[in-house]
Amino acid sequence: MKKILLLTIVLVAALTVVACAPSAPAQPTIDAAAATVAAGANQAATAAAGAANQAATAAAGAATQVSGAATSIATAASGAATAVATAVAKPTNTPPPPKCDKLDGMPAVKAGDLGSPEKPIVIALVPSGDVPTITKAGTEIADCLSKLTGLTYNIEVGTNFAASIEAMGAGKAPFGFLNTFSAILAKEKYGVTPLLVSLRNYKGKPENFYQGQFIANKASGVKTIADLKGKTFCFVDPNSTSGYIIPRIVLAANGINPDKDLKATQNAGSHDNVAIAVYKGDCDAGSTFVDVRTDSNPIKTNYPDMVEKVDVFYITDNIPNDGLQVAKGVDPKITDATVNGLLFISGDPGGKALLRRLYSYLGLVKVEPTFYDDFEALLKKAGVDPSSLVQ
Hints:
Elements: H1 2-20, H2 30-89, E1 121-125, H3 131-149, E2 153-157, H4 161-169, E3 175-178, H5 180-190, E4 193-202, E5 205-207, E6 209-217, E7 232-235, H6 241-253, E8 264-267, H7 271-280, E9 285-289, H8 292-295, H9 297-302, H10 306-309, E10 310-320, E11 323-326, H11 332-347, H12 349-359, E12 363-366, H13 373-381, H14 386-389
Helix pairs in contact: 3-11, 3-12, 4-5, 11-12
């Protein structure tokens, strides 16, 4: 009995020890440990990548700012360089205003006398070019001349060349800028005397002569004087030297009767109008001074392709330039004042610009009263006697 009791106590104690022993912690499996490590690594990698991306973005932003700044600086520098280059390469073409301060030694006139505001000195101008341009430039010259001399001047643009001659002959215009043939006619008819001759740019030099030219629309097929037979032709005015008198002499010398062999003729009224009529095809050909296509500002402005559409196919001999003439009986003091005032304008940069716009003059120089005599003799040899045309 004692043995059984003792065995029972030992068994209970053993069970108690087993039951009360602490449990050993569960060990993670290899896969779980790896997953944990991998998760940590991924978090670390994500963090690192984020930091790297932030760093790269910041670096790119900084680079962009630097690049933008560099571009702005380069653009500004380029713009400044272009502006400087443009200023150097393209100087302003605006002429200075003319100097019109009163000159010494000018005559004084009484109220109501020639040269006073009540009786201004009229300068006759022929309508050989664009009339609005001639009128504007002529008025500016008259205004400057008035200030230079203390006398009063006005201008009058004739309705045609003959009207300007008659204005001088009738005492309405003591002075005139007549074309060459009109000056010769005015001398024969009214005793008008040349005072100044103009200088124009001819073949790169200022000359006191010019030449006439025959022009044709390229589509007309006219290449020579002989080709003009049966064609339409534009002259300037019956009193135009290079636009009528000389061309008719040239035509006759080359076997063409301008009144019979041409299909039709018309007087366009000015050199500009002839060139425009030929350009538009209203006339197959025409005659003007050399070279209305490039020397006329209205043509250069309004017909910039004139040279491409209108050819020059004949050049005449030299013709003395036009200039200033004085009517018979004008007070020598007023004549001297007018000549000296115009010569001053001719020597002033601003004044030169006015003369250029008036009749493409580069300047004015004094001439003798016999300046046109040799040319008149040549006309007579060619069968044109100006004295015979005087009525």
